[in-house]
Write a structure and sequence with these properties.
This protein is mainly beta. The chain is 6% helix and 60% strand. It has helices at 58-61, 152-159, and strands at 11-23, 33-41, 49-57, 69-81, 84-96, 105-114, 119-122, 129-139, 142-151, 166-180, 183-197. Strands 1, 2, 3, 4, 5, 6, 7, 8, 9, 10 and 11 form an eleven-stranded mixed beta sheet that branches. A hairpin with a 2-residue loop joins strand 10 and strand 11.
Length: 205
């Protein structure tokens, strides 16, 4: 019988989506695991789908393959290989569900520490206020450095924070593409939509 992992109280991820590919030769996994490329949908009216890496122990995989609709519980983790940061969900449990009745979900909750100075900016086309930051999740003696993005009021509050401040956040893991040297790359980041608790040095405007 496959081992059941125990949730961390400080790092929880729950997603439901469609498996696009099953990879066994990915730089951030060992031979006991596979990496699932899972696509999740954003809230309507958006038609964007996010590409998420999900690392699964082969013993938990069962009959799940390309095209399967799956529900996954796990934790967000990161690993740097040859200077590239890989962001993925480490699955504690994975279940195949009926695609006709399943709702695509992508929900993260974790606590993290601000580990570098946040950057406040405006988006080039919509002129929205946005803040780029990196939060460190410290769990079971490991540290995972997670790039995040905040919007509007949360962006302004995050921008006023000091390195070392602790946050409890809710969000989703999203993907975006960029082109470099005529090659397309996919990167992931956490879009934060709620900060449950935070501290910062200066007063909010």
């Amino acid at each position: 019988m496959a081992k059941k992992y125990v949730y961390s109280c400080i790092d929880r991820a729950n997603i439901t989506g469609t498996v696009d590919a099953v990879e066994e030769n990915t730089p951030f996994i060992t031979d006991k695991f596979v990496n699932l490329i899972v696509y999740t949908s954003r809230k309507e009216p958006s038609t964007v789908k996010d590409r998420i890496n999900v690392v699964v122990n082969k013993k938990l995989l069962g009959n799940i393959t390309e095209g399967s609709c799956v529900k996954i519980a796990g934790a967000i983790q990161t690993k740097t290989v040859n200077g590239h940061l890989y962001i993925y969900i480490f699955a504690y449990d994975i279940t195949e569900v009926e695609a006709e009745t399943a709702m695509d979900t992508d929900q993260l909750k974790f606590e993290g520490y601000l580990c570098k100075k946040p950057v406040l900016r405006k988006t080039p086309f919509s002129n929205r206020t946005v803040c780029d930051c990196v939060l460190a999740i410290n769990d079971r003696g490991m540290s995972y450095y997670v790039p995040c993005i905040c919007w509007s009021k949360n962006a302004k509050k995050m921008a006023q924070s000091a390195v070392g401040d602790k946050f409890y956040v809710s969000g989703r893991l999203q993907s975006r593409e960029y082109v470099k040297n005529e090659k397309t790359y996919v990167i992931n980041e956490v879009s934060i939509y709620h900060i449950d608790e935070f501290s910062f040095n200066s007063e909010d405007d």
